[in-house]
Batch of 2 targets.
Target 1
Amino acid sequence: MESNTLTEDRVGGRPRARETGDEAGVHDSPASLHVNDATGKTQAPLRFKEPALQAIDWHFSYAQDWALKGISLEIPQRQVTAFIGPSGCGKSTLLRCFNRLNDLIDGISYKGQILAHGSEVYDPALDVTDLRKRIGMVFQKSNPFPKSIYENVAYGPRITGIKDKARLDEIVEKSLKGAALWDEVKKRLNDSALGLSGGQQQRLCIARTIAVEPEIVLMDEPCSALDPIATARIEELILELKKEYTIVIVTHNMQQAARISDYTAYLWLGQLVEFGDTNEIFTNPKEKLTEDYITGRFG
Amino acid sequence: MERHLDVELTQVKQNLLKMAGLVELAIDKSIKALKERNSILAQEVITEDRQVNQIEIEIENACFTILARQQPVAADLRFMMSCIKINNDLERMADHVVNIAETAEELVTKPVIKPLIDIPYMATIVQGMLRDSLDSFIRLDAEKARQVCEKDDVVDGLESQIQRELITYMMEDHRKITQALGLTLVSKNLERIADLSTNIGEEVIFIVEARTIKHHHKDVHLSGKPKESSP
């Protein structure tokens, strides 16, 4: 096994061997990890040491046609990665593949691999509930439970078996603080969550997600339904959260992707057109397709 | 598809071209004023500088507004940033031309010390560089921009040569010092205009290739990689 002595995130060489020594997995040659872009050309992929998530030639279909075709990418740990692209390009679909939320839909099919910290996500033996605890999700429309603020956050930890009140109190406080909501609700934890404003509800959903200590947080257009001030607060929150969690955010707001993400993936018609450092994507993208999209030349 | 932004960018380009045209004309006039000892012409150059200053402010405001409202990215952003710099470069060129005109005015009352050959020749090259740099900007021609940068060595060489010659005049006869100093200043101002033209060339290369080659065009500092063009 080659020893990987590179310290920076971007690695030009081969990925590290998995613990199990499985030759078919992460050890695949760079050829299989090439980014297939929509023009049919392959690009040298961005490579990270120990990526949080990987898609390897991933295809996904809801019924007949492939909604996602040949997607290969790596999501770096504890960074914010944004998926951008026009409506229907597959960015939400891809996001939901990471935590197998698409399993809930009948008639789906897929091929290729999705790995979370090196392990197969679509392994039939995998505990999907545990997966969704480790990979949390925040949705466009906030969906607090019709319970108290406290109960919303305590629900997840309770399900994982924590019964001790003191411990639950601690988790609720920590999570609400982590979601920048504590100060606003600490005196009314028993009030209904449905009485909170849109922005507060969204932060509550984030608190709920981080209460179960995920490794990865997926966000599907979390700010689309929020006003600019609430949006700005969530964006600030995301920049804080990435210190502890890997964040993947789907957004149709390109300026948001430019503001808060470290890496950006541009999807179009179910394919990955380009994946790169957000600085580069927005100052000098490699693909003309990317440039046309972000500069608004798509008619 | 033409975007609203494209309309605004075209307007900025046209104003920059207009400004460059005024600067080129001013160089012509100021050298003519020098050769013909024409203080009226020199005064015109100095007065007309106000026009250039006016356009500079308009262009700057337009760029500022575009940045605020359109939030350009990628090539559009590189273009915008370069427009702002080119705007500054042209305005400073105009200031150097005013310096030349002021010197021309001063020298009108002084006896001629030598026929003017090298300085008008230098001015012609400098005007060519200015024209070519704007041309490379309008056509986004990085090759042409590089040629402008390379021409700068010729101008530097001329400036040194002129300076050496004028020093000998000053050493020969102390009564020629004022004129010789004046001509040295003219040549230095022309040399600065050439430098500013190469700045424009560097900005064009930044727009086209996303590379910064500032400060020495032979050292290429990569700020980005050239885009692979799609078929």
Target 2
Amino acid sequence: MRLLSAELIKLGHPLTWGVAAAAAVFCVLLAVGGAHNAALAGGTPAGHLPSCAELAIPAGPRCTRAQARERARVAQASAQPAQVAAQLNPLAAGAEAAGLMASLPGALALALLAGAHVGGEWSGRTMKNLLTQQGHRWRVLAAKLVSLWLAGVGLIAACWLALAAAGPVLVHIDHLPAAHESAARALGLAGSQAARALLVLAVFAAIGLLAAVATRGTIGATAATAVAIVAMLIAASLPGTGRWAPATWVQEWMGFPAGQASITSLPNNFWSRFISAGAAPGQLAGLLGLAGLLAACWAAAVVLFRRQDISG
Amino acid sequence: MAAVIECRGLTKRYRGTTALAGLDLTVEAGQVFGFLGANGAGKTTTMRILLGLVVPSSGRAWLNGKQVPDPAALARAGAMIEEPAFYPWLTGRRNLDLLALSGARRPARDREISAALDRAGLTGVAGRRVKGYSQGMRQRLGLAAALMRRPAVLLLDEPANGMDPAGIREFRTLLRSLAGDGTTVFLSSHLLAEVGQVCDQVAVIHAGRLVEQGPVSQLATARPRLRLVIDPADQPSALALLHRWRARADGPDAVLVEAAAGREVNEVLGRGGVWASQILPERAGLEEAFLQLTGTREASDATAQR
């Protein structure tokens, strides 16, 4: 615990505060755009259903299907304002914050923090000081991992707070309908997503830790973590890899809508849009896959670090 | 006396480069021990192995009686390896606090930090951020970090770098007082005059091996030399005649020869038609002894320039 408290003090680095502020600003800007999109979508006329002639399709089953699709689109558009207003409820905004931080924005933020907080010990040549005080190298890594993960949790909190403050203002400005969800339901949704995000953030932190140990520097750690995350997303879109790709485990564990369905007025993640819908594992497979990935990254980092010469 | 530091056949290879080639070394408790060698001789690598920062390729080393790497050996060791590094956005005191938190629990942490800052002469600036420190102040903070745990053994690698003359003097006094308190100081430095003044024993390593170890006085006086005053026009001939004694010029009208008898030198010169106006026996200082032992051309040139 003492080592962890030392690591948390080190996280008072200006970059950490910068990343937290950037995460909060990103969430608010996304909410501004989302609320505006929802207001525009809500203005779509819903009364008129286009005829087969207007759709330039001969009357028959094909036209009927096209009309049904159009009806669904209009219904979805008209539901957008209420949906976005519900997402921006101060309590429910936790789900939005958790989804964003357990996807690409959070992964990139943690890549930056892994570079500064872990890789920076090599670049700043402070690792030798640390290891001459604490000879158990695995303890140093454990403290780094937990502190990095807590920084990720802090990013969710920063985003949640920013959305909770900005949400009601945006709903008012864009004339979105008031959300009718109960506080308990909103909090339950936010709590569930935030709890799930904890595992995903731990995996991102472990990837960042391994990248820092392997590259032994700030820039290397940040770049290697970002490359690993992007590679995970690319791997998930390759044919036949769906079930075995870590990115798919994240998607299923977090319950993100598949593929293009995740692109809405106010998206709740920046992850599943990069994964083509296909054979996906269930939530349990997602949980096991992420837990396995976390354990593998941790073990690899410990083995590598234990035999590493600290020469800087 | 018990050995605080011991190395047996210590070897370290880095991708084709041999930093240590079977180093054997013993440092007994309560000494100020100078560890000398030219750049790349293996001094820092030895210290890093002792502190568990570098894994040896072969051989074994013990610190505080425990074979390294052993975290328990570090609990009673303080170290400053090369230029000390700190978190620049934190104050000096906060940096020491972090290091104290990172190691074994200490009952009087704050008091020990204050005492270490005081001993290093940093009490007045302990509340300032490290990014505003000069190199000498950082060096002092490194020393405070090393002293913080009241170590039984202190490993210092070039600790006086960047310190002003007054700081070096204070530092010398500090090392002697630590040794007086029973702390073993293992000191690597290029300031041979300082080493000569402060150390009880020295070891010289060259190309990763121990060349010599013993008391400073013995190391320096074991190598007598002769200073020959001659006509500047005869200097090249004298150097050629006396080359088997590693003769070298010392100014335009003098030649130094190592470990030679005056009579024999005089005879050789006479046979060659060169006559010295004076032949003076001299005792080499630690610097001369070091240069002879390591035989590095670069070091010799640097000394000649000084």
